[in-house]
Amino acid sequence: MSDSREASAQSxxxxxxxxxxxxxxxxxxxxxxxxxxxxxxxxxxxxxxxxASMVAGYTETEGxxxxxxxxxxxxxxxxxxxALRLADDDASASQAFGAAFRLDPGPAREEAxxxxxxxxxxxxxxxxxxxxxxxxxxxxxxxxxxxxxxxDVVVALGALRAAVTGARTNVSFDLGALRSGGKTLKQxxxxxPDLWSKVAQFNEAIARIDALTAEIDHRAAPTDTxxxxxRNASGPRxxxxxx
Length: 243
Hints:
Layout: H1 3-13, H2 21-28, H3 37-58, H4 63-101, H5 107-133, H6 135-144, H7 150-176, H8 185-191, H9 193-220, E1 229-232, E2 235-238
Antiparallel strand pairs: 1-2
Helix pairs in contact: 1-2, 3-4, 3-5, 3-7, 4-5, 5-7, 5-9, 6-7, 6-9, 7-9
């Protein structure tokens, strides 16, 4: 078997739900595009939701707060499973995307590229939408979660940011690929307003993640004296103060 055929066979056999981390990342490292960056965004979402579940599990509280922690943990565990499915779905979409661009020039190729681009954009949008759903829960954990695990919340936010950023960029890129059929960006926006609007939605989520991370970074990384000063209701506080 040639190297290219062997690589294709290896990548087509992996799944986030049935392969080891070693097997999946080895397939990701191959020059096949399936799994690719889109599938990676799904995996990062799974990491973020897994950490959210862990922090919730370590958070001891009572009353209404206890019920909220339990709901957050249940949502996080459900999201982890969904994220892995979405990662595998994106790997399949990526495979079709690459196959369409390898076709000979002509009407059939243009149609295949259009369909594959839209499918890929929808797949990435689905990951981004689910990632945005996790933001409120991580914000709650950042404030009310076990303070000993605040660093894990920051790691979860970082993974979530990677997922949203990947979704935003892939949706935008896949929509842009429709220009290969002769359409302008203005026409694409008119034809696919829902997908087009996702880019702005995901940009807003990224800004919120950054703000939330900055709010708790002084607790997660108290030795980082180079971090910017932040303000709260009681006045200025250095992110590196540790207090």
